[in-house]
Amino acid sequence: MGKIISCAFNIDTACVELLFADGSMISIDCTAVEGEVADNRFDRSELDWLIYNKPLEYADLVLNGDIEEYCKNSREHQLED
Prior knowledge:
The chain is 54% helix and 22% strand. It has helices at 30-37, 41-53, 55-63, 67-80, and strands at 4-10, 15-20, 25-29.
């Protein structure tokens, strides 16, 4: 893998898909990710926003194992408001 050519959410498959310059592809099953890390509707809403608006950031969080920390920090921020 190397340079990312495209990253987008495919609504038909409910996956964030990354296409690399060498032709390889990664498809992240967003439903499965949410099932594992989203404890409540607020987490799901936050993840959905990322999927639609910043799919590359979402993919980065998932692939680097930071998605649970992101949800935790998002919850703490909501409690402060």
